[in-house]
Amino acid sequence: MQLVVSPVHQRLRDRVKRIARIELFPREEVRAAFAAGHTAGDPLAEAFVAETYHGEMGAEKARELLDEALRVGIDNVPHAPDSMRALFAEFETVPDWVDPDLVEQGAAVWRRWGYSLGAVGNAGTMDTYTEASLAVPLSLSGGYAGSSALNRYLETSRWWLEVCRPGAVLSPGSTARAVSLKVRVMHVSVRARVAAHPEWDSARHGLPISQSEMMLTLLGGSVGPALGLTALGFLTSSAEVRAVLHFNRYLGHLVGCRVDEIYPQTYADGLRLLYYFDATRRHDAGPLGAELVESFVPSFRPAPTVRGLARLRAAFHLHLQAGYTRLFMLPWNRRGYRLPSGIPGLILLLGRAPFIALIEVMRRAVPGVDDRWQAASMRRWRRWHAWHLGQREEAFDAGRALRR
């Protein structure tokens, strides 16, 4: 698959390299691997899904089988097919490169970022909906389109909340690991359905939810917020960025992303890959991208039946999310969509930045502040999630049909 760099980005790269001796593009071999990754999937998980969810077994029985294996262990499921055993063997093997201390340090960064991680990550993701390769799968699956946009975000938030619990992703049998495997299977199921859909152009876009696109989500949980949240007062050191990169690398392993070839090892490498993605955009999503972007923030709007404090609370989060989009979507992309102004939320976000920065300084100087800062951030995030979720449960449904 060929990626074409825009002339504007090329000129900026050349000028910066000439004047500052700084290279904005990744190395040539990384660029080649990133292009090739658009046609690469997840063979082990794809074999399992094809045999079970999309095979004679059917989605309901396959879901029950997966739940059973996650609950009692694959060795205690004698009727598990070989494709499932191969998937679990890879999933349950901790790669040699994993440093448990770095994984935990990276999880701690997520706990400090808290609600802001999800908000800035989603705003950055919305900015990528200019691309049909990203917008078509989401539009077809319906996850972030129309009235279901908030529900899908709550599912993603549940995964974020689980994986950053202390020690969770390296603990056998943890909810974090179970949810990660369900996310992997769901992605593979959607990939297969979208790839067979007449709206998908494989010659132009490669595979839906490709390796390269999954890589971008990992950067959206590491170097992206590390850079962007600085504007909101979060002070993330270089060592913490390295840790959160390592944490996201292991998360990538769990959800089926190949993280051994082009995965960034440094903050600068991560930013270069993000710049390269921006430089090779096609801006071909059209109305599908607009549908996705314009669905999300309004999904926080309080329903007509909501009254009193609950209505004020919903309106607060509506303005807050709109503020994040104003701050973290590229202005020339954001102008192409109909979105709430975001000014009230932006004022709030920037107004509290000095207080966050003060806490960030204190956590390095005063023993115990860091732990309390993490706990408070997670408490607020979980409270918001539980309030919005209500009596519903996240489905992570790999058997869900496409909406058209």
Task: Outline the structure in words.
The model has no long low-confidence stretch (mean pLDDT 93). Helix 3 runs antiparallel to helix 5. This protein has two domains: 323 residues, no CATH class; 53 residues, no CATH class. The protein has 404 residues and is mostly helical. The protein has 20 helices and no strands.
Task: Indicate the mean pLDDT.
Answer: 93
What's the helix-strand series? HHHHHHHHHHHHHHHHHHHH
Query: How many DSSP helices?
Result: 20
Count of strand segments:
0
Shape estimate: globular
**Oligomeric status:** single chain
Main sheet record: none
Task: Please indicate the percent range of residues in DSSP E strands (runs of 2 or more).
Answer: under 5%
What's the end-to-end separation, in Å? Answer: 27 Å
Low-pLDDT stretches: none
Helix content: 55-70%
**How many structural domains?**
2
Rg result: 21 Å
Task: Tell me the structural class.
Answer: mainly alpha
List keywords for this structure.
single chain; 404 residues
Brief description of this entry?
With 404 residues, the chain is mainly α. It is built from 20 helices and no strands. Helix 6 crosses helix 20 and helix 7 packs across helix 17.
